[in-house]
Design a protein that fits this description.
This protein is about 20% helix and about 30% strand. The protein is of the alpha+beta class and about 200 residues long.
């Protein structure tokens, strides 16, 4: 069985999946406030003790970049390592992915009931797919078709510079530059939970 997790600065969601039940039917699932814990391992132990299901591998989507099997959550002080997680829990495999990369992998298995069209368009067969997720921050990823199969790619595009296109947006940029001590104003500072007070 597989332990899957969505690790964010606000909350951490853990669930257990089996090959028999498939990816849309977790055997157990729970949500934890990330800030109340000092490490991911503490949440995993609590979840494991609650659900009492034996898992042999794990995969976690992490809100932040993953480099050489290690990651630090953008809005937490947690440092995670695939090798440390395998050693701590005795798993045969552990994988850390950027959270939007992991969400992108779910796009091909979405059902019609999962979708709501914002702007009607004409799909391009095997065309690239963008994944944008405003939450606490602004996550972005994309998918490309290679050999008839989609592959997900992480992106830290939310940290790209905010580019105003009207006088009102130029005013917002000027205001935010002052608020941030004339620092960098990213798209995330406008389009996310972090950005709502700035827009207000």
């Amino acid at each position: 069985m597989l332990l899957a997790g969505d690790i964010g600065g606000t909350k951490t969601v853990l669930a257990v999946f089996s090959p028999e039940a498939g990816p849309r039917a977790p055997l157990a699932e729970a949500t934890y406030p990330s800030g109340r814990y000092g490490r991911l391992e503490a949440i995993v132990r609590e979840f494991r003790d609650q659900v009492k299901l034996a898992v042999d591998r794990a995969c976690f989507g992490v809100a932040g970049p993953v480099v050489d099997g290690t990651a630090r959550v953008t809005n937490l002080s947690w440092l995670m390592s695939e090798s440390d997680l395998m050693k701590t829990f005795g798993w045969s495999a552990a994988r850390l992915l950027n959270d939007l990369e992991s969400i992108a992998y779910a796009v091909p298995i979405l059902a019609q009931d999962d979708l709501h069209t914002l702007n009607m368009g004409v799909p391009v067969q095997q065309g690239s797919i963008a994944v944008i997720a405003p939450g606490t921050g602004l996550g972005e990823a994309f998918m490309t078709s290679e050999g008839g199969r989609y592959h997900a790619h992480a992106s830290e595009g939310g940290h790209a510079s905010f580019a105003p296109s009207s006088e009102l947006e130029i005013g917002l940029l000027s205001y935010m530059r002052v608020q941030l001590g004339h620092g960098h104003v990213s798209c995330e500072r406008v389009c996310s939970g972090l950005g709502i007070p700035n827009i207000y």
